[in-house]
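Can you give me the bound-state structure? Components:
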Amino acid sequence: MPQRNLHPGAWWLWALGLATAASRTTNPLLLLLITAVAGYVVAARRTDAPWARSYSVFLKLGLLVLAIRMVFFTVLGSSIPGIHILFTLPQIPLPSWAPGVQLGGPVSLEGLCFALYDALRLAVLLACIGAANALANPARLLRSLPGALYEAGVAVVVALTFAPNLVADVGRLRAARRLRGRTERGAKALLTVGVPVLENALERSVSLAAAMDTRGFGRTADVPTAVRRTTAALTLAGLLGVCVAAYGLLGADGSVWALPLLIVGALAAAGGLLLGGRRAVRTRYRPDPWAWREWTVAGCGIAVAVIMVSLGPAFADALNPPAVPLAAPTLPLLPAAAILVGLLPAVTAPVAPRAASVSRPASVSRSKETP
Amino acid sequence: MITFEQVSVTYPEASHPALTSLDLTVPEGELCLLVGPSGSGKSTLLGTVSGLVPHFTGGVLHGRVTVAGRDTRTHRPRDLADVVGTVGQDPPAHFVTDTVEDELAYGMESLGLAPEVMRRRVEETLDLLGLAELRNRPLATLSGGQQQRVAIGSVLTVHPKVLVLDEPTSALDPGAAEEVLAVLQRLVHDLGTTVLLAEHRLERVVQYADQVILLPGGGQAARFGETADIMAVSPVHPPVVALGRAVGWSPLPLSVRDARRRAAPLRARLADLKPAPAPSPSGRSAGSAPSSGSDASTASTPSAPSPSPAPGSALADVTALAVRRGGVEALRRVDLTLHPGQITALMGRNGAGKSTLLNSLVGLHAPTSGRVDVAGLTPHKAKPAVLLKQVGLVPQEPRDLLYCDSVGAECAAADRDTGAAPGTCRALVERLLPGIPDAVHPRDLSEGQRLTLALAVVLTARPGLILLDEPTRGLDYAAKSRLVDILRDLAATGHGVLLATHDVELAAELAHRTVILAEGEIVADGLTPEIVVSSPAFAPQVAKILNPEPWLTVRQVTEALAGSEGSPGSVDIAGQI
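Here's the bound-state model for the whole set.
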């Protein structure tokens, strides 16, 4: 097994494939299967980088979504008619201008199941995104952006590295408050910590900007005026076209002209980006190659999505089990097998090179001196 | 390689120029050291070379700076990126990417070098700086010395002709500093890179410098010349130079090795004498040598307690303390007792657990096992407001402790926090740091002033035990000797002081007792002379020169010599820690 980083785009395609599959079903068994598949691949191929922990973070987020949904359902009731009434909350009468909304009232098992499945789908979508975050290095993904977007990409990378620094700053300053004998909490404490944290962040960005400037960031090549103008025109026209086409597609009447316009707009925007890249002089150090391993990983995700979508009509009941009448969900074999295809990357993806031995983090050392 | 022609820099809203009429040329392939007190314009001078002054910082630059033939007036920093490599004081602030290899490539990517060239140079640089094993490591997991080497490597890959470094070793332990300096020397020797370097810790770098630029500050003209010539007259100099000047060696030795070769007669003269107990105020057995009684250290003698007082008088007692943080055993089974009137230096590598120990004493970390007892309190359980009156910590970044927008407000807040009478803190500030107006923003103070203000804030609560984390980083010699005097006074009035430091000269000058930590364990604990003389990493320069005799500071030597000859020594030890 070779040791290299898989192209981050491949991981995202795989995860989005799983997410698409998840969005086609409310069968809890299938949804849990998707979560398990994503979790297994993450466990098999993640690194020890900080972002590799995001799968569990997203799982927790999913559980939170689930809990919120259930609470809302119980309190607000639902339109699902059920015969298995679990308990009845006192109902608060609402004025007539709020029809269809109820507070309290009977809570049925059917309704509860419906809400649970629905929320579970959302939670699984989040888990898929979490899997992509855990497996794909966000910095490397941004490095694969076209040259014209490079500067925007750097801004995002810098922002990403700032978040942990902010957290560390808040911790340090809260400790310093304690050294001054202060124990207040809440808004006031946040205020006394907040201002210095922002000051530190600002100072750090200024010194980073200086460092980047001295290292040649922002060097641009001279391009002829004509090319510059064409770039601007293409980008602008392309984006406008895409906007109008999207409007048409969402509305009722534009289905004939919207699709061609969308394609033309997208092409024009892509052309603008390509031309815009000429202004950037930078080159890329060891770009991640797109080889057969990338194809298999991305392919697995796409295959799962395509099969699930195409099985939709044949397995309508199994994929979206009706809430009424109440029945235990069954596991449809064919869709389940399709989802298992998503496991393949756990074997075919290369192992990311690991840092040999992780020593203790350096003490944060910052100083000094007025210029 | 670098030419300054009548260069003056004035920042906006500044009353006087940061740099005045500088006129000099740094030749190619030299290692040029920039020395001077805080605020003398060292950072500004470095900035003019990389073009950050005035393009990035603003301000007006008169005259002309040319680097490799390029005028910095017409070239922005990014246009100079291929000839000047700049490494700032704080490597993490310099990093743009997140792994070692990407960081090394970043500069070349910006300049648009061909992929094959980039690949080759990254490999070369990894070898040159000894980073090959770290190539895939996230930058955040590296130690301070490793980060500094990566920062240097990241600008080296574009093959700059000039390397500009601002205090590259200040935050490093002695071992890591040696690593970085070895790399710089290799660059100068093997690649002919011109290196321009500002540093306060002269004892670490002077021996490597070919030329020195001395910025005396206060409007005086800069001086430029061979290292030995400038060191002979410089008000700031390392102990080895001070010793050479004191005993009249000529030519002046710059390295411990030079000095040792010349020190045989001095060692013979000192053989019959005994050092005055290092910085010690106490009347220990070793204190039989005549002492002039003329300086701050001896003035406090009578009131100081003995370093091994009767049990029960301890300010803090740490028993079998272990602390785990984020899966790392930061401290294991540490036993330490701190006494009033004693100054203890805590030394060890970056990451050895020094800060964790200090933080445990003020209750920022709860012990995993063992216990900490500060005047009968358990710090992590005690109320901060109560603990404050027993123990105070000045953190590594004193600014963290300050959160008001003026010195006056800061002092008023400190009085309120501690329940002291209004004006207590202000009076302390006035005593420690006379002449600071109330309206000044703490941010606008110099590093040394800010440290003193933080110390005054801590002292407002009258704690018996004072902890300082790396207090001398970024301090110039004047600020440092002021701190020494303040801490000595505190010890003389019965405070216990524990300072974590990398500064071996400071420890030798100030500490009665030295504790060395390694990997969370105490590996040495005892009187400073006994601990540091035999240690290659933690011995001060004088001890290295006069080894095996137990002399630690220039002051001890000159006093002993003066005493033995019966005439007061009139040697220049000013500016010397």
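A couple of observations. Chain A has 13 helices and two strands. The CA atoms of residues 176 and 182 of chain A lie 9 Å apart.
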